[in-house]
Structures are given as C-alpha cells and as structure tokens.
Design brief:
By secondary structure, this protein is an alpha/beta fold. Helices cover 49% and strands 15% of the residues. Strands 1, 2, 3, 4, 5, 6, 7 and 8 form an eight-stranded mixed β-sheet that branches. The longest helix is centred in the first third of the chain and has 22 residues. The chain is globular and about 65 Å long. It starts with 9 loop residues before the first helix and ends in an 8-residue tail after the last helix.
Length: 319
C-alpha cells in the first residue's frame, strides 16, 4: 500500500521517494547503490526523529486520522486468532461501522468490539467512515452482554469521528443507544479493556470507552468534539482548528496527565502507519499485562474499582 504523507511529513516523503527509486531501478545488486541506500536510510531515521520529536496537538490530530493508520480489523488480524464476527442488533439491522465478535487472545477466549473506518474510499463509504448508527451501538451492547453471560473479557477499540448525526439515526434512538452502552459497560461483570487506536470523537467514542483500563496510542486523540467543530463554535471559523486543538488538550500525553487514561502506548518512529506490525506487538504486550491483572481481580472488587475510577476522574485546573 502506497504511503500517504501529511504536510509536515514532506521532508520524510522526499527521502522515502529517493530510497524507493534506487531500490526499484537497481535490478542488479551494486555496492555503490547499496551504500547510497544505507546513507539515505540513516538520513530518514534522523528526519523521522526530528519531525516527530516536537509534534503539535493539531499534528497529532492529523496523525490520528492518517489514511495509512492501522484500523481495528488490522489489529484483529495481527493480535487475535480465530476471530468469528457476529452481526446485527436483532432489532433493525447490521451496522458495518462497528465490528465485533469472538476471538482468542494468546489462547484466552475474548470478545472484541471496535469502530471500523475502512481503508479504500469504497470501504469507507460502506462503513460510513466509522460513524455508527444506533444499530451499531445496539450490536455492541448485544456483544457486551454475551461477553458477560459467558464470562469472557471484553476488549474494545475506538476509532471514530463520532456517532452518525443523520435524521434517521436520531429517529431510531441514537442518544439512547449510546446511553445504554455506557450503562452496560459501567456494570458489566467481566474485565473490560478499551483502547483508543485513532480518533476518539464525542459520545460516539465514549460509548465503547468505559473500561477497567483505558489505553491510548501515542498519536491518537480523544475529545468531546473535533478541533474543527470546536473552532466553528468558539471562534466562528474552522481555520482556527489548530488553536482549538491546543485548547482541547485531547492528546494521549494530555489525558494521561489529567488521569483520564491509564497508559500511553508508544508508536514506532514515524507513527503506527509506518510500522503496523510493530504497533501490534506493543498493543499485544500491553493487553496481556492488563488482562492478567484484571483476571486476578474478584468480580465485586472489579466493579467497585471501575466505579471509583470514573467517579474520581477529572481535574480542575487553577488559573
């Protein structure tokens, strides 16, 4: 898959292009070509380190939406085995913007549920760009209750701009569907780990985010509203999105400091989109560690700790 580059990644794009050209046109191994490629790869590492060492909050927002960023199903393929997708909410239909089913994680049976944006334009349109309708959240609710019924840990992955705001979605009870997911996750008698893998927007993201552990990839974002939406409301101009991103403080580092999330999962140099396999290994290691801890916690104690976690979350900043 061809790499897509954001504006601030242009220095990296130029080096990547040179390396690709040399590798493409070097039909026969040649010492000089190999030396030049090695030199360019060293330059690439330096450029990556420079570009990614001081990212703004808006740049991290852009990375959370990166076209090449691994999706929920990419992680399902790399981290889990024996995945069996379950469809439908048993009331209206199936929503491909939320995918879920039974799987095994390092031999442990689990239920996995997540937002799926899709990769190609056709897939994105079919999955409504990861913006679920009420039937998507009701499907998630059905799978959550199945996880509880059969005593399986629940792992959710969040990657959505938000719940779909269309008229049909509202008529079918969008707000209620989200509220029911929140209520269920707050009281579910099974371990829950939620991971923000990309963009976590508004209540559409929160609906899958009430867990015993809330993990977040380094370049993911999690906020009540997008920077563009915030800028349109507060500054009456979407062009102020960078200022809004700074004010929202929705990056992983910000939310760890505020006590909203439990762990930041460091991404490979250059972002998860440059090394999906490496990011999957980091995710698997973290999931294994947290799941082992949660499975050793008695049910009533698990619920009490979950209650306390969200009851005392948040901090008032003095000025």
């Amino acid at each position: 898959m061809a790499l897509y580059y954001l504006d601030f990644e242009k220095p990296i794009a130029e080096i990547d292009k040179k390396i690709a050209e040399l590798k493409t046109f070097s039909y026969h191994p040649h010492p000089r070509i190999a030396e030049e490629v090695a030199s360019l790869e060293k330059q690439l590492q330096k450029a990556l380190a420079k570009v990614y060492s001081n990212l703004s909050r808006w740049q991290r927002t852009q990375l959370s939406r990166h076209f090449n960023r691994p999706t929920f199903l990419d992680y399902v393929e790399r981290v889990f085995s024996d995945f069996l997708e379950l469809h439908g909410d048993r009331k209206f239909g199936d929503d491909p913007a939320i995918v879920g089913g039974l799987a095994r994680f390092q031999g442990i049976p689990v239920m996995v549920v997540g937002h799926q944006k899709g990769r190609t334009v056709k897939e994105k349109m079919a999955r409504n760009f990861g913006m679920p309708n009420p039937e998507g959240y009701r499907k998630a609710l059905r799978l959550m209750k199945l996880a509880e019924q059969f005593g399986k840990p629940l792992i959710t992955m969040i990657d959505t701009p938000g719940a779909y705001p269309g008229q049909g979605a509202e008529e079918r009870g969008q707000a209620l569907a989200i509220a029911e997911d929140l209520q269920a996750m707050a009281t579910l008698r099974t371990p829950i780990i939620s991971v923000i893998i990309g963009e976590g927007g508004s209540g559409g993201a929160l609906a899958l985010g009430v867990g015993d552990r809330l993990l977040m990839l380094e370049n993911a974002t999690y906020s009540v509203i997008s920077p563009e939406g915030c800028a349109a409301i507060l500054w009456k101009a979407e062009t102020e999105k960078e200022k809004a991103a700074e004010a929202l403080r929705g990056t992983a580092i910000d939310l760890l400091e505020l006590g909203v999330i439990d762990e930041v999962l460091l991404e490979p140099l250059g972002g998860a989109h440059r090394d999906g396999e490496g990011m999957a290994r980091t995710l698997a290691e973290s999931l294994a560690r947290h799941l082992k801890d949660l499975q050793q916690t008695p049910g009533e104690q698990l619920l009490q700790k979950r209650y306390e976690k969200y009851r005392y979350m948040g901090r008032v900043l003095g000025g």
